[in-house]
Every structure is written in C-alpha cells, then in structure tokens.
Amino acid sequence: MTDAVWVAGVGMTSFGRHPQTSLRALGRVAGLDALTDAASEPAEIGAVYCGSALSLLLQGEGAPGQAIGWELGIRGVPVFNVANACASGATALHLAWRDLAAGLHDCVLVIGVDKALMPKGSVLKVGAADPEVRLGEIFPATFALVAQQHMRRFGTTPAQMAEISVKNHRHGSLNPLAQFNQLLTRQEVLDSMMVADPLTLYSCCPNSDGAAALVLRRQRRGPRDLVLAASVLSSGQYDNPRDFTRWECEIAAAKAAYALAGTGPAGLDVVEVHDAFTICEIVHYEGLGLCAPGAGGALAERGATALGGRVPVNPSGGLLARGHPPGASGVAQVVEIATQLRGEAGARQVPNARVGLAQIMGGSQAGDTQACAVHILRTY
Amino acid sequence: MTDAVWVAGVGMTSFGRHPQTSLRALGRVAGLDALTDAASEPAEIGAVYCGSALSLLLQGEGAPGQAIGWELGIRGVPVFNVANACASGATALHLAWRDLAAGLHDCVLVIGVDKALMPKGSVLKVGAADPEVRLGEIFPATFALVAQQHMRRFGTTPAQMAEISVKNHRHGSLNPLAQFNQLLTRQEVLDSMMVADPLTLYSCCPNSDGAAALVLRRQRRGPRDLVLAASVLSSGQYDNPRDFTRWECEIAAAKAAYALAGTGPAGLDVVEVHDAFTICEIVHYEGLGLCAPGAGGALAERGATALGGRVPVNPSGGLLARGHPPGASGVAQVVEIATQLRGEAGARQVPNARVGLAQIMGGSQAGDTQACAVHILRTY
Questions:
Q1: What DSSP string runs through B281-321?
Q2: CB–CB of A126 and B368 under 8 A?
Q3: Which of B56, B127, B133 lies closest to A83 in CB terms?
C-alpha cells in the first residue's frame, strides 16, 4: 500500500456569516482541527495546498496559504495557493494527492477557504473577462439556461428541482456546521423570489464564509484513517456548447475516478455533489452515472438520494444548505464524506457507509473555464 | 536521464502596456510561441500550469489557465491556476516540474500572465489583509526599510543601489521585449522622484502587462533542449522579523537548488533575480552566495554583475527594465536563462553560458506570506 494516500484528519469551521473573523483566522481554525484530528504536529507537514477563489479579490489576501501556515506554526515548506473557481479547494486536494502519490511528501495539509459574503446588491466580479458575462450571463442566468434545456429535453419539472432544495435543507438541519438549519417545503421553494426562471431564491446556494481542512499521509497511522482511492481533475472539452444538459469534463472525470478506485456508481454509499443550483445536482446525478441521462429529476422525486434512500446525496446539506465559500466547498465535501465513512455523522449518518464520492466543478457551463474534480474515499 | 525535465520551448510577449489586448490573448501569444518553439501540438500537452497573481482582481478572470488553454486548443486536461504573489509564475513552473519528475505527464505547458497596469494614483489591493499594510507598509515602504537597514549595517550606499538600475536599464536597452529601452545615468536614478527614502522612482520596477510560457518535456527531443536541473519552492521561516537584510527562505531555497543541480554560485554563468527594487537585487546577490553577506553593493559597483562581468545578473533588464507583470516574471526569467543558454540572446548574449539560475520571491519582507522559488537550467 505504499502508493496509497490516506485521509488522516479533517476539520472545518461552521459555514455562514463570520464578519468578525479574518480569512486567515478561519483557515487557522479548520487547519488546527484537522491537525488535532490527525494527531499531527505542524513540523510533520511537508507542504501546504490552499484553495481559495476570492481571497485576493474580496479580502486583499494574495497568499492565504502562507498566512494560514504561519498561524499554524508551519514554516519554510512549499506553499501552493490554488484557484479554480468553485473547484479551488478540490484542486488543492488533487495537487496534494499527486505529490503524496509520487512520494514527494509524507504528510501535507490541504486548506480550502473563502470569505464570500458581500454587501447586498453587489455582484461578484468573476468571469467579467467573458463578454457573455458582461452582457448578463452571470451564474444564475447560466444555470437557468441549463434548467430550461433540461426541462424541455427530458421533461424535468420545477417540482422535481425544488425537491433537491427541500432534501438538502432537511439534511442541513441535521448538520450543526451548516449555514441554514431550517426546513423548507416544496411550495416555499417554488414560491420564493424568482432569480432567473425557473430558478427561485431557494434554488440557489448562498455566498458564505468558511474554511475546511484535511491532513493527508502516505502511511496509515490510525484506525479512523481512510483511503483516498481516486483523485481526478479535468477541464472542459468545449465541444458541445449547445448541449447544456451534460458536462463532458464531469463524465470524463467520473469515469477516470471509478477506474482508479475500482468501483462504479453502484458501489457508492454516499455522495456529495456541487449543488450550486438545484438543477446542478440533477445534472450531476446523470454525469456520475447514478441514473440514466435525463432521469435525474425522477431520481430526486422518488427520494432515492435522500437520507434513507438508495444513495444519499449531499447529506451535509450541500452548497444549498451547508453554504458555499467557493474555495472551501470542495474540501468540505471530503470532510463530510470522511465523517460519514468514519460513522461520526450523528443525526445525518448514512448507515454502513464504506465508499463515498465528492464531485465539484469550477467555472460556467457555457464558458471556457470549466474544471471538474472527483474524489473517492473508502474505508480500509 | 529518465528523471530529467527538459525545457523544450519558450515564448513571451513584450512586457509593457497592452491596453487593447486581453489577459487571455497575451497568454495565447506566449503559449503559441512556446508550443511552436518546442515543435509541440496542443494535443501533446498533458496539463497546464498557469501562474497569475492579479487576473481575478484586475481582469475578472478567475480561471486564466482554462481560458488560455481554450485559446490554444488544449482541452480536457488538468489545469492548475496558481497564485503566489510575485512568485506565481515560478510556482506554476515548480508544480509542473514536480509532476514531470514524478512521471505524471510527459509534456506540459507553463504560463505566467498578468495585466497589472493600473490607473495612475491607484494602489494595488494586495496584502490589505495585513494591518501593517493598511497602516502604510506597502511594497516601496517595506523595501525602503530593507535598504535603510542594509545601509546602516553594511555601509551600502545610494550610489551602489542606483548602479543596479543603471545596469538593468542598460541591459534592457538590448532586449527588444523589455518595457523600457532607454539608458539611465546614476545621477538620473538618484535624482528621480523620491518614493520611499532611499528608493527613488527609478529604483522601483513598474507594473506591467505581459505573458511568458514554457513547454517542458520528460524527454529530450531537440538539440536546443535544456535541462531543468533544479526547481525549489520554499516559504518564510518567519524567525528573523527584525533582520531585513536576508531572507531565510531564499538562502534555504538556493542551498537546496545547488544541491539538486550539483553546482554552486561559482558554477553559474548567468543569473536572473527578483529586482523589484534596486536593494532587492543586492540582497539576492548575498542570499544566492554570489558574494559574502553585506558585499552586494560593492559587487554591483565594480561591474561584476553587468554584461561582460564575472557573473551577469538580469541580462534581460530584470523587473526594473524588462517590466513586471507579477504572474509572468518568474516564467520570463526562465525564458531569458533558456535564451542565454541556447546562445540566442543577440546583443545581450553572455558568451559560453552553460549554467543559469533564476530566483524570484513572493510576498513582503516583514509579512508572513513569503515564497521563494529558485530554478537552475543547464545545457546538455
């Protein structure tokens, strides 16, 4: 097992509003949690991989990894600050996995962090380099197009999409670190303010502040250590810009990850996906092979992906309820999967979970800046 | 030589003002140059490593690597967007070196890019997370403190520091891609507007627009290919905040790089260092072991580091004259070293150059966000 990479420690802050806490302080809390959880000392850490999408733009923090490393007493080692939009944290994890698998380090720290809460009415200056974005195709508009096409092509309904939000808020109500803990009804989701037809307010994830962290090792040291069985990062193929109902890069990443882990969609006990908007989760069901193309809405509607269902998806509450600090979400997903596989998820525990998958994307559907990361963990 | 990493192709735009050219277009120009130079097709590229410090902050471009890859016809492969302040491009190169040395890819593209020119009078919102920066310790102030301490401790003079700018502008006048091509006298440097005592306007590098690119391979394919003999990235030790005249992380990185390359300062034929301010180049002479601690000012004064001297430093013109798009500079340094080792540097050619070193830092001297990258190239 010398080539195995182990998830030895996990940590995260609550996600939500942290107006009085700096970005580096959030990172310190999550990092210290992960170090403590792994029974690791700062001196053991051979490199730091820090994913943050917005730290410089919104916080004036150009090298968050060093700042957080300094707070944790980690000195002198290589620090990689990585950005890949919403996949920033997962990209940092993928780089860490590469270096451990190659034997370049024995133990590393992965941090995902962002403070993304902004004054009401302000629009994030992301993707402003794209003419389409400047003309109005910001994220909700992009994913409304995805939803419209999915509805037209496959008969997916607003009620099915709303079910994603209902489920994830129910899950979030069981997660003490989630941003939102209240339950929503399907009607409340459908009746909330229209953002971009058919996506209503409760169909969209929030911007959030928060951090998550992982300690990875090349050697198993404790009984709670988990195998990081697959780590794949892909970018867009850009070859089907008129088909918004599938992401080629996700399908490719999932296929590669299943091959690496020696499993497939039927072998998954628990899944975290990138539900930035309700429609996204449905598209990801299909991209990951949890159901046939076009069948994602029905899968959600019959409860197969809820806690207690065939394959629970986003037991953490997902981006919709746990919240979405872009740089942190990809790491937080893996924290959730690890917590589930350890059997430490409390009220939202998936019974006997042994294999879990986390999927996240960066960039827009129409744009040329897509990234997709897929990670698979399993118990030893 | 299976573990060797080869620099197979180099490319860069001119540095300076490119108001009508987008960031991704700059990256495309440099990338296409490098691909052509390496006789490489986009389909050969297994991964893209893109260093940019300011792309999202100033250009609204959150995933520049994907955008540039798309422009170049590179699809589906992992793309890493890396930030490490002024060391962003060099950090991207270091990641690429890791993955090639580990055998994860056979051929990759490294891009460094930024558009950093800003409206007159505006101050870059970098490091604003540090209270010291908010209180006024922006970069010129930080390095003025370095200069003051170096003067007091070692007797370094303003005239010696000015000589750095005179030399680098002379070198820049021989580089068709440099931002500044005019010669400066020592008196002109000393008499230019005071920015932060003793650093005058011509003691400070400009903000610039530009891109640079490298194609790296695991196999030597052409007679102009060069060995990337060492690649080291370190971060701050943070243990001597009251001694501003040396960077522990630079000393550590240089030592590790010399060991990897099996050489030392006496074995270097040509060097590029991070002369963001004149005093920086002097400190780097000492950190890299080109002279004893404190002797950097005298080394410059006697012309040892000028073209024609014992070990020419910054034959490209350095940041002071070539210009400084932060994400691009670390890659552009390696482009210059490669050009010199190939004997293709024209009027600024260092005769018989066989071994060259590039050094760059990120973050501030006083702060907790330091990074230092050192790369050594040699002819085969």
A1: HHHHHHHTTSS-TT-HHHHHHTTTTSTTSSS-B-TT-HHHH
A2: no
A3: B56
